[in-house]
Amino acid sequence: MSSETLWQISMMRIVESKFIKSAVKPDGYPASPYADIAFVGKSNVGKSSLINTLLNRKAIAKVSRTPGKTRLINFFEIHFKTEENKDGFVNFVDLPGYGYAKVSKTERTAWKKMIQNYFEHRMSLKGIIALVDIRHSADPKDIVMLKMLQDEDIPFIVIATKSDKIAKSKLPACLEKLSAGLEVNNKNIYSFSSLKKTGIEDILNWIDNQIL
User: CATH number, domain at 127?
Assistant: First the structure.
């Protein structure tokens, strides 16, 4: 399945997207000549909603009502047009959500191994979009994830989701607080709302810069 989208920004215009496959281990990853941009965050932070909004698709990434349900790494191939109207391609990779209390210790260990394998063995990985909930203070689990990315020297940005739940006047202060709590540069954190469709341009421009 594919979809024509409406998001026109300065550098990248997504025109088509399709699900490729799910995998757990490196030998199951799809062979691809294109760069990977992966999405990671706690369960129920809005990761699938973010991907669907970027692609203007209702359910290419499944939105589950049961946090912690996704156990696989899901790969999507994205076709876009450049500013010069040239064709480009990138893979979006939806990593399993973490931090859900009802998931067993064994499952959490398996998740950590799955993610570490992906970070270490996927040579086409060009960047990570890490999601946090703008309504809450920095979570220790998110801090651990960002430290992992820093240790692996993987470029990343932090996307603070559900910004429509916060008064617009309070957004800068919330982002500043999260930036300090997560120990990331405030230039690397952006607010996003799938409801109001805000933050799309920032994210797609960052993706475009990572895959140049």
Answer: 3.40.50.300
Domain-located, residue 7 = no
Residue ranges making up the domain that contains 165: 12-210
Instruction: Please identify which residue in the block is written with the tokens 């429509």.
Output: 164
pTM, two decimal places: 0.89
pLDDT string in tens for the chain (212-residue length): 333 343 444 468 889 999 999 999 999 999 999 999 999 999 889 998 999 999 987 656 554 444 445 579 999 999 999 888 899 999 999 999 887 656 677 887 888 899 999 999 999 999 999 999 999 999 999 999 999 999 999 999 999 999 999 999 999 999 999 999 999 999 999 999 999 999 999 999 999 999 98
H-state helical runs in the chain? 47-55, 105-121, 140-151, 171-182, 200-210
Identify the helix (H) or strand (E) that includes residue 191.
strand 189-191
Number of folded domains in the chain?
1
